[in-house]
Design goal:
The chain is α/β, with parallel strands linked by helices. The protein has helices spanning 12-20, 22-26, 38-47, 67-77, 92-100, 113-122; strands at residues 2-7, 30-35, 55-59, 82-87, 105-108. It is built from six helices and five strands; from the N terminus they run βααβαβαβαβα.
Amino acid sequence: MKKILIVDDERDVESLFRQQFRKELKAHEVEMHFAFSGKEALEFMGTIQPFNIVLLMSDINMPEMSGLDLLKKAKELYPQLEVIMISAFGDEENLYAAKELGANDFFTKPVNFDILRKRMFSNAPVKTSS
């Protein structure tokens, strides 16, 4: 089972992801956890012993702590953690910064869930111009 942490300051993201991955959730192929800020995500990750989150998906534009700041801190604490960044803005600057900080992939909103699903379960980067 893949344990995933999804971070976004928009709370409706939780219901969207749960709906999109309902089959995988029901089949116990994936376990999803949600945090609504970078700080909350780091606090949650610190409580997991042993640490077994395999994928962090984070929005970039969030108040207080950006997704890029979260990415940097998460990679410092958990270097092997796979990270996918998600942004409403597919600008080159965010893409470059995310890659430089260690992101494994980058999706733009609205997320193409078919491509994301393939990416999540194939363990290989997928061309993401979603």
